Amino acid sequence: MSAKKPFRPKARRPRGFEDRSGSVLRAERHLVDTASRIYDDWGFEPLQTPAFEFADALGKHLPDEDRPNEGVFALEDDDGQWLSLRYDHTAPLARFVAENFQDLNKPYRRYQAGDVWRNEKPGPGRFRQFVQCDADTVGAPGPAADAEMIALSAEVMRAVGLADGEYLIRVNDRRILDGVLETIGASDPERRMRVLRAADKLDRLGRDGVADLLGAGRKDESGDFTQGAGLDLKGVETILAFLDSSGGSRTEVIGRLEPLVGQSEAGRLGLAALGEIDKVLSAIGVGDNRAVFDPSVVRGLGYYTGPVYEAELLATAHYDDGKPIQFGSVGGGGRYDDLVARFTGQAVPATGFSFGVSRFAAALAALGRVGAGQERPLVIVIAAEKDQSARYLAMASELRAAGFRAEAFAGNGNMGKQMKYADRRGAVAAVIIGSDEREQGLVTIKDLKLGARLAAEISDNKEWREDQPAQMTVASDAWIEAVRIVAKRDDKTV
C-alpha cells in the first residue's frame, strides 16, 4: 500500500489583496512619515485604534443582522457579538471619542495611519486592504477648523515634494446645494440624493450626462437606464449653473453662488462658511493657487454636514507610450458633526482630512517625487574569500555606521553570482577584498549603476577591460569615502 502524499496547499494570493514590495513600502512609509511630521508640527497627537471594532460601531457601514459581512470583514466573538475589521479610521475615532469623552481635552486633535479593510468586489486599482492616513479635529465648531484642515492638506502636498500649481484643494459646502434645491422646490430626501449622485458624476459623464440624470434619466452605453431626479428644465439649468460657478478667485465664486441660494437658510450658512474659510486661508498664506471653491465637489452622500474638499494632483506623468497619466483626487475630507452622536445622542462637531497612502505614493513615484533621495543606497560586500566572513561582516557594519544600507553576502556563490545578486538588489556599489587586495591593503569598489549604463554603450571588450571606468581600487583607509563618491554619482546622498 503506497504512502499517502502529504497535503501541500497551493501558493495563491486572495483576490483583492496585494503583496507590497520593499520599494513600494519605503515610498508609502516616507509619505506617512512626512505627513505625520506635518501633523505633529500643527499640534495633532498620534492615535492607534485596534484593527477590530464591534460591528455596530461602524456607522453607515453597519451590517444588518442577516448579513454580518456586508461591506466589512466580520467574525463572531465567543460572546456572540460581531467584530469587524475597521473600514476606515473615522468610525473608530468616533467610538474612541465617545468612550473617552470626559477625559479628552477638547478640541481633540489626532492623526492615524494604518490598514483598513473593505469587503467589496475588487477591481483594477481597487483593493480590499489598503492604507489610509487621517487627521481630524473633534470638538471644534465653526468654519475656522475646516479652514485649518484645508490648509493642513495643502501643506502635506507641499511637504511631499509637490510645487504650488501641481496640486489644488477644491472646496465646497454641502449646504449650498441644499439651499439651491430648496429654492427650486426639490429638497425632498429622495430627489436630493439623486441630484447629489448626478453632481458627483460630473467629471465622468460631463455636463450633458449630468443634465440627463438631473432630468428624466440616462441610458448608458450598455443600455442600462438610470432614473433621473425628475427636475424640470428650469431646475436642471439652475443646478448646472451651480456646478458651473467655479473658476476665478474664491470671492468671485461666492458672488456667483449667492443668487442661486436665494433666501434659503441652509444655503446662506454654507456661503457664510465659505466666506470665513476664505478669510482664514488668506490670512495664513493659502492663496487661490492652492485652494479654490468648486461647487462640483460632492463627497460622502449623507455623511458630511458642511464644508467638503478634495486634494487633486494637477501634475502629470506619462506612460511608456507617451500618453499622459491623470491622477485626479488623492485625498479629501470635510465636516461630519453627526458621527459621534451615534454613541452619545449629542452632536459633536468634527472635521477631518484623509488620503489613500498607496494611491498617493504610486502617483508621487510616477512623478519622480518619491524614491529619488529617499531610499538610502544599498552596498553589498562581496564574500571573495570563504575564510574572511568576519572581515566582510565588519565592513558591512562600518558602512551602516556611515549611513548606508549594507550587507555582507551570506549565501553560496562565486564572484559572478554575487555580482548578479548585487545588481538584482539594486545596489549602487559592490565592495571587494580578495586575497590580492588584502595582501596589499587595498579595497576595490565597483560602481554598479555606472557599470550597467556603460556596458550598454561600450561594445568593444578590449576597451572595457582597459578602461574599467566603473571600478576603482583605493587604500583600505579611504574605502568608505570612495563608496560615498559612487553613491553620489547615482544622485543619492548619505
UniProtKB/TrEMBL annotation:
<dbReference type="GO" id="GO:0004821">
    <property type="term" value="F:histidine-tRNA ligase activity"/>
</dbReference>
<dbReference type="InterPro" id="IPR036621">
    <property type="entry name" value="Anticodon-bd_dom_sf"/>
</dbReference>
<dbReference type="InterPro" id="IPR015807">
    <property type="entry name" value="His-tRNA-ligase"/>
</dbReference>
<feature type="binding site">
    <location>
        <position position="136"/>
    </location>
    <ligand>
        <name>L-histidine</name>
    </ligand>
</feature>
<dbReference type="InterPro" id="IPR041715">
    <property type="entry name" value="HisRS-like_core"/>
</dbReference>
<protein>
    <recommendedName>
        <fullName>Histidine--tRNA ligase</fullName>
        <ecNumber>6.1.1.21</ecNumber>
    </recommendedName>
</protein>
<keyword id="KW-0648">Protein biosynthesis</keyword>
<feature type="binding site">
    <location>
        <begin position="88"/>
        <end position="90"/>
    </location>
    <ligand>
        <name>L-histidine</name>
    </ligand>
</feature>
<comment type="subunit">
    <text>Homodimer.</text>
</comment>
<dbReference type="Pfam" id="PF13393">
    <property type="entry name" value="tRNA-synt_His"/>
</dbReference>
<dbReference type="GO" id="GO:0006427">
    <property type="term" value="P:histidyl-tRNA aminoacylation"/>
</dbReference>
<keyword id="KW-0436">Ligase</keyword>
<keyword id="KW-0963">Cytoplasm</keyword>
<dbReference type="Pfam" id="PF03129">
    <property type="entry name" value="HGTP_anticodon"/>
</dbReference>
<dbReference type="GO" id="GO:0005524">
    <property type="term" value="F:ATP binding"/>
</dbReference>
<feature type="compositionally biased region" description="Basic residues">
    <location>
        <begin position="1"/>
        <end position="14"/>
    </location>
</feature>
<dbReference type="InterPro" id="IPR033656">
    <property type="entry name" value="HisRS_anticodon"/>
</dbReference>
<feature type="binding site">
    <location>
        <position position="132"/>
    </location>
    <ligand>
        <name>L-histidine</name>
    </ligand>
</feature>
<dbReference type="GO" id="GO:0005737">
    <property type="term" value="C:cytoplasm"/>
</dbReference>
<feature type="domain" description="Aminoacyl-transfer RNA synthetases class-II family profile">
    <location>
        <begin position="31"/>
        <end position="377"/>
    </location>
</feature>
<feature type="binding site">
    <location>
        <position position="299"/>
    </location>
    <ligand>
        <name>L-histidine</name>
    </ligand>
</feature>
<feature type="binding site">
    <location>
        <begin position="303"/>
        <end position="304"/>
    </location>
    <ligand>
        <name>L-histidine</name>
    </ligand>
</feature>
<dbReference type="InterPro" id="IPR004516">
    <property type="entry name" value="HisRS/HisZ"/>
</dbReference>
<feature type="binding site">
    <location>
        <position position="118"/>
    </location>
    <ligand>
        <name>L-histidine</name>
    </ligand>
</feature>
<dbReference type="InterPro" id="IPR004154">
    <property type="entry name" value="Anticodon-bd"/>
</dbReference>
<keyword id="KW-0067">ATP-binding</keyword>
<comment type="similarity">
    <text>Belongs to the class-II aminoacyl-tRNA synthetase family.</text>
</comment>
<feature type="region of interest" description="Disordered">
    <location>
        <begin position="1"/>
        <end position="22"/>
    </location>
</feature>
<dbReference type="InterPro" id="IPR006195">
    <property type="entry name" value="aa-tRNA-synth_II"/>
</dbReference>
<dbReference type="InterPro" id="IPR045864">
    <property type="entry name" value="aa-tRNA-synth_II/BPL/LPL"/>
</dbReference>
<keyword id="KW-0547">Nucleotide-binding</keyword>
<keyword id="KW-0030">Aminoacyl-tRNA synthetase</keyword>
